[in-house]
């Protein structure tokens, strides 16, 4: 039998070498893949442990677990967002801001990272910057439930603006969500109240009337509608709505307080239609008495000569005997005196009298 040629022997050896290399490569790939899977499992386990610790309020421990997960999977954005949230919850705002800055540098459209950054900035009192990041969250990218998360971010911004009494900015945020906010009664009632805070009683009234069309026995909607009518100066309508709220919910303290304030104003207001001259005169005297009292509380025992003269006029008005023929004329004179006393109170008192009291609202109505 002939021996194999040198060429065939060489080719066989080369084939065996390649087979060995291929087998080693396959083994290396298998081991590397196994290691990747094990690393992924280990990182996921550390991350879950961190999230569980966050739920328990143990944020310092959570940070360490999540950092362990990030050490294994450095580019995992979910882990980095969770780390920033844990850092914020632990009060480590500077660390959270640094984590989020890195995230947002690589993807400025990250909605959740922007929302957490906004919360960090609120915590630090940097409200103008926080508002900017809330907007980035509202219009940013979300991996899932984008519409719900964007609405949640906008409501979080709205709550911040409401707390800061930023009426114009609040109204600007409320207007876009009217049509696509959840239609449940709780959310609609909340929207109505927010429109009141934003200084838009007309829109608030529309919201509350819509609720009452769907739920005619909703006491909160009647109370809200009463507040809207009150803010618009429709005090008789407001009184009716507050009374309706109390018929439906007699223990509702907010409606009771609103009704008491409304009725106090209605007993003071001399501009209501249908008042007899004697009733209007009596109300004008009451306003002189109240404004004189308000002013004297601020000026103390030594008022200026000009103010003392107003006080003396108030005494003379209270003691005057007015004939029926002069009641309207006397009422007008008293109202002029009350307005002068009120302006003096606003000038002399520090802080000035509250602008939402029944007396202040009546005086503002008279001044129109």
Provide a descriptive summary of the structure in words.
The protein is mainly α and 368 residues long. It is 77% helix and 0% strand. The protein is built from 17 helices and no strands. Helix 1 packs antiparallel against helix 2 (59-72) and helix 9 runs antiparallel to helix 10 (201-214). The termini are far apart.
Please give a handful of descriptors for the protein shown.
single chain; 368 residues; mainly alpha; Serine Threonine Protein Phosphatase 5, Tetratricopeptide repeat; 17 helices; 0% strand
According to DSSP, the number of beta strands is: 0
CATH topological fold name of the domain at 166-268: Serine Threonine Protein Phosphatase 5, Tetratricopeptide repeat
What is the overall silhouette?
Answer: elongated
The proportion of residues in beta strands is under 5%
Query: What is the C-level CATH assignment of the domain at 166-268?
Result: Mainly Alpha
The CATH homologous superfamily of the domain at 166-268 corresponds to Tetratricopeptide repeat domain
CATH architect. name of the domain at 166-268: Alpha Horseshoe
Low-pLDDT stretches are none
Structural class: mainly alpha
Overall mean pLDDT stands at: 89
Terminal Cα span: 126 Å
Tell me roughly what share of residues is in helical segments.
over 70%
Radius of gyration over C-alpha positions, nearest whole angstrom: 36 Å
